[in-house]
């Protein structure tokens, strides 16, 4: 491996296969409120001083970004249609991670949060706390598929927003191409992260946590009315963590604060403001050294403990506004401004030293990236009838403005001494050598009609997007500037048909498309990259069991993606280099089965099975006809949680157990290496002290363990190998009132 290639690997190895450095724009957003089953009226009480006290107001007809759920069973959200639509009526595969699941499993990362959802491949890059990189249905969604409150959460280069699960109410997942409503997005689907919102009832929570790797964490969550007179509600969520990890010089420290505020002056109007700031410190690299001779991953930390800092500061502020104009029309406007800055030093061991084989040569580098984005989505919803057909018509216009700046410098680090591998060595100062600035605008307009006739539901949607991208690359050493401008226009659509049987079974069929503009140029042709395009056919069935809080679903899908990006060694005028090229086509076919339930006897359960056949139809030499690396054909998961009932002698106790099966996959697109199958076990135990005495009401203790058996096997993706994250055990003392 050359120094240049190892340096490139350092910064992109987490994204490796199919890295798209910016399908960054556009989106649309969630709807603000929980729908009211019936219209409530404003009632008033007169206190002694004569002032008017407003009682709780429920806004009729809202389409909230939150998930309507009962325990583990998600029932509806605005993710699938941008209108509050029951999951069984959405003609596309959709599922959720509910608030109760988050409480029971206590995930510490986004990957932990979504690990039990169908089709989701987490852990393909082993232990790495720097990024939340994952795939669904065989396609990487790191850049194109993460949304926050139904608005795009953009990313570019190493500038990816970090997610704190304690700040979430839940996650809605819409699988498959979804550009008809959301604009630029990928083939696999989208993950809508739903921020905690103010509650109308007072809620207060304090937590103290201690875990493996000297993990200390405290967190709080306060919410409720501002006072007993005005229709103002607040929420304030915060966290402080000081933690090491299994890798030397890779901490997992974080400060997080998220204020939220809601104003509901009447039953037709609602404004919610959502804010967040966090500071996270971790390592510039977490990789293990890969032996270039054997191709195997070793136990040597590839970085330099004395030169391995990465600090990310990020913040966002936005609002969700809804106003009902009359019985037919509702207007919504949702917007967010977000920014992040990441400052990182890294080193990377890539080959034995030519003189002393006990030493491993290390490259080094430093980069400073800043990303700012503004997203706004305007929606007008109309509900009306034409004869026997009921319509929910949605028209929208959204705009995204993104600016990304990257300063990058490369150098060398003193070699890694295999006789003393954890020793750090000072690195000479590294100046920035390149500067990249990218400006991107996206404007999109969309129209969707959900039409119901008797038991039939037809969903038609279409959208047209305009994307403008200007990229300026500056060589700070040679003082030269290259500028590339590109413009992409694209139409996206979705059509879906569902039928609700008398006994609750809902079969459906759908067709949908997506596109993802790719920033940068193909250095082999000196031409801008074309957008990556995808289309999907899906047929499925959903069943919400009558008289049982149980949801069953199954889906068969076929996805074709063209203009895929790959990294390939190409002979350029300057010599061979590992660059991004565009000549790919991938086809993914598969089956997903999911079951969610929360029963009155204290048992809650989520289970899924996924079969994915993802093949490269067009790609680099030696890959055509092969399977996409690190995409298992078979995956299955089961998480069950049981709380003993009041009649039990161990009332107050709760137990959880989970198993995640990850089948065999190939370690590279050439299919010359293989990742073995594995089963990872998770567990939880909890106790509610109120079972001892009511005076302890609100006090509980919970212990969660992930990868209980501490399996740390090699896992390879796009030819680079990692190790599974080891066992983590975290105890939580919680008090709520």
TrEMBL record:
Among the GO biological process terms of this entry, one is: siderophore transport
Which GO-annotated molecular functions does the record name?
siderophore uptake transmembrane transporter activity; signaling receptor activity
Its topology with respect to the membrane? Answer: Multi-pass membrane protein
- Where do the TonB-dependent receptor-like beta-barrel domain residues begin and end? 263-708
Q: Which residues form a coiled coil?
A: none
Provide the primary localization: membrane
Which protein family is it in? Belongs to the TonB-dependent receptor family.
| Single GO cellular component term | cell outer membrane
Cell compartment(s), UniProt: Cell outer membrane
Organism, scientific name? Rhizobium gallicum bv. gallicum R602sp
What are the residue boundaries of the TonB-dependent receptor plug domain, all occurrences included?
89-189
Quote the PROSITE patterns the UniProt record gives: TONB_DEPENDENT_REC_3
Does the record bear Magnesium in its keywords? no
Question: Which SUPFAM superfamilies does the annotation name?
Answer: Porins
Per UniProt, the keywords (alphabetical) are: Cell outer membrane, Ion transport, Iron, Iron transport, Membrane, Receptor, Signal, TonB box, Transmembrane, Transmembrane beta strand, Transport
The leader peptide range reads 1-38
Q: What is the name of the protein in this document?
A: TonB-dependent ferrioxamine B receptor protein
The record's Pfam families line, in alphabetical order, gives: Plug (PF07715), TonB_dep_Rec_b-barrel (PF00593)
